[in-house]
């Protein structure tokens, strides 16, 4: 009876965490480009700094990781595995779930994510939010393509329909570059920003299936802690990559006007 109640409570917690994650993702996806564009509209010029801020909040993931570890330790103390008679002590619990190969895979994907952050920031510095958002939305097509190549994801009628519509939308934007160009942005600058935004969309479309491929190849259970650790390492290396770019571009120096 108690086990049934625990399972129900665990399902409710998982559903709650899923809803919270969806809300945070929706807020970041919609609000992030607006804030970034607002920075550039009001005179901001530091592209590396904008890219750095996209993943700089990764230390906050230590909070759910710590809660997950404490919960897991408490569960093992009260419900030890039936296959062993040795009591589990806190010293025998592994704080880090991921193994070295997963760590290096997360680090590599994190660097790719850092490159993607820079390309996106460079593009949105000169593109209107409406234009850049529509181009970024085309990442669904790239994601579907790379998912088909890497993890053998099947195409559906809905996927094909969305890809066609978004591709047509991006094509229409490319043919009408003069209509939504901001003041002070030349045709060459607009074209470069348009291209980098498309590249960012394509690269992120490659990153997502790559993460799924790693999950398929690893030989250990996919747990909440493992997923969060993977995201933590990925965002950490993306942030470090952008921090190196900031150092090379002297973005840490204050520029007085």
What can you see in these coordinates?
By secondary structure, this protein is mainly alpha-helical. It has one domain (2-248). 72% of the residues lie in helices and 0% in strands. The protein has 9 helices and no strands. The termini are far apart. Residues 84-92 have low confidence and may be disordered.
**pLDDT < 50 runs, ≥5 residues:** 84-92
Give the averaged pLDDT, no decimals.
80
Main beta sheet strand tally, sense and closure: none
Rg, please? 22 Å
Structural domain tally: 1
Class per helix and strand makeup: mainly alpha
Give helix and strand order, one letter per element, not per position: HHHHHHHHH
Number of helices: 9
Number of separate strands: 0
Summarize the structure.
The protein is an all-alpha fold. The protein is 72% helix and 0% strand.
Task: Name the descriptors.
72% helix, 257 residues, 9 helices, mainly alpha, single chain
Blueprint (SSEs and pairs):
Blueprint: H1 2-41, H2 47-53, H3 62-78, H4 100-124, H5 129-137, H6 139-150, H7 157-175, H8 187-217, H9 224-248
